[in-house]
Design brief:
The chain is an alpha+beta fold. Among the domains are: 56 residues, Extracellular Matrix Fibrillin; 67 residues, 2-Layer Sandwich (Wheat Germ Agglutinin (Isolectin 2), domain 1); 51 residues, Wheat Germ Agglutinin (Isolectin 2), domain 1. The protein contains ten helices and 20 strands. The strands form seven sheets. The chain has a four-stranded antiparallel sheet with strand order 2-1-3-4.
Length: 427
């Protein structure tokens, strides 16, 4: 049985190698000839087992945050073996900058409280180094850091998790323990909505697509375009950001109904929607232009309760229902519907998504099939980790929704693709 750790290494190799096409990324030189740089493989660990990118210069690997580098080229098949074995040969990690140079560069650097100036490394051929403000560990807590509970968001597992800490100092200590910064959301215990949330520094409380409250500065919202849009509140806004700022400050859900100024008495029969969108009237009989293809975050297997009282296993399933029936549905709240007679709509991980962007082309290549298999594997892995958190799942692909069939399907397609590459001389 393949372990989940090895499976994830293979998944990383699939997605980086085949999706990026192993294209070299070289530094650009203006007005002068570039100095010679070694080209090879960039790794995110000191053992050269976790791939970042292949066919990349040593300098670019360092600047992009790589930890180690190997100077081999055109080694796609070997990379696969290194990742599931003991790592790549001739693995060289980047040297940290000497303390004297660090003190000189960080002398005038102003970092926020509980952070300090650090210079991770000096990159070969770059001619300069950059400084960053990182969390100071162990934290130095003052009296104000022990006053009252705080709510923070932990991103270390890949899925955001809200945690209430007894104090901000405890949150800092946990950040150091996990070696990842836990973001302070607001003071006080974590809440399921903006009700009762007191935001610091004149910030406003808004909820995200998962109904989680966040304290943000509404005036900092900026957009590049200046196209007028019609909001679902019936008002015309100069651009999307003006709409977002209004929604942010009013703490109401206002989204774009369609582009252009609001049309009095508009209906779906009089409103032309752009290509790829359909018109559906919402709960207030106002027309909306909706795209029926699902985004990646909408395909995530997270239960939601829709305004029709039905529980959907993902936001994408709810969108499919809207586009299929023509009846507008919105998220009532995350999680299962509480009504005793409520229905539940689910989809098996092996079933094809009925959304447009999930339908394979007639002459779909092995590469495209692998992309679909990888995306399904990633979504199921995230769900498995979420459900198995804090439990011993056995460390194999049998746990949660990570089924063996989908994984082996991805492996089979990869091997066929590699065989075609070798026969065709692409090695």
């Amino acid at each position: 049985m393949i372990s989940s750790h090895t499976a994830y290494r293979i998944f990383a190799f699939f997605s980086v190698t085949l999706l990026l096409g192993l294209k070299p990324v070289m530094a650009k030189c203006k007005g002068k000839q570039c100095p010679p740089h070694k080209v090879g493989v960039c790794w995110s660990d000191e053992q050269c087992m976790n791939l970042i990118r292949s066919n990349i210069s040593e300098r670019q690997c360092c600047l992009e945050g790589g930890v180690a580098f190997t100077d081999q080229q055109n080694v796609q098949g070997d990379i696969f073996i290194w990742m599931i074995g003991d790592g790549a040969p001739r693995c060289e990690k980047f040297n940290n900058i000497n303390p004297k140079a660090k003190n000189a560069i960080c002398k005038d650097k102003q970092c926020p409280p509980h952070k300090e100036c650090r210079i991770p490394r000096s990159c070969p051929g770059s001619g300069y180094v950059t400084s960053v403000c990182e969390l100071r560990c162990p934290p130095v807590c003052g009296p104000s850091d022990f006053k009252g509970s705080v709510c923070g968001t932990d991103y270390s597992s890949g899925t955001p998790e809200r945690i209430t800490f007894d104090s901000s100092c405890q949150m800092l200590q946990e950040s150091c323990k996990k070696k990842t910064e836990i973001k302070l959301e607001f003071y006080g215990a974590c809440k399921a909505s903006c009700s009762g949330v007191k935001c610091p520094d004149k910030k406003n409380c808004v909820t995200d697509q998962n109904s989680l409250p966040h304290c943000v500065s509404c005036d900092n919202i900026r957009c590049k375009d200046n196209i007028k849009v019609c909001g679902t509140d019936g008002d015309t806004y100069e651009d999307r950001c003006a709409l977002r700022r209004k929604a942010c400050k009013s703490e109401k859900t206002i989204v774009m109904a369609y582009k252009g100024a609001c049309r009095k008495g508009a209906t779906c029969s009089t409103l032309p929607c752009p290509e790829g969108k359909i018109c559906i009237e919402d709960e207030n009989q106002n027309p909306r232009c909706i795209r029926c293809t699902c985004k990646k975050r909408q395909r995530a297997l997270k239960e939601i309760c829709a305004t029709n009282g039905v529980t959907y296993e993902s936001e994408c399933l709810m969108l499919n229902e809207t586009c299929r029936t023509g009846l507008f549905l919105n998220i009532k709240h995350k999680g299962k519907c509480q009504e005793a007679d409520s229905k539940r709509v689910t989809i098996s991980p092996d079933q094809k998504d009925s959304s447009q962007d999930q339908q394979p082309a007639k002459n779909q290549s092995d590469h495209d099939k692998l992309v679909e298999a990888i995306l399904r594997l990633q979504e199921m892995r995230e769900l498995s980790e979420k459900k198995g958190k804090g439990k011993n799942s056995g460390g194999n692909l049998r746990s949660g929704h990570l089924n063996k069939k989908t994984f082996l399907n991805a492996i089979e397609i990869l091997l066929k693709d590699l065989k075609n590459r070798i026969i065709g001389g692409d090695r």
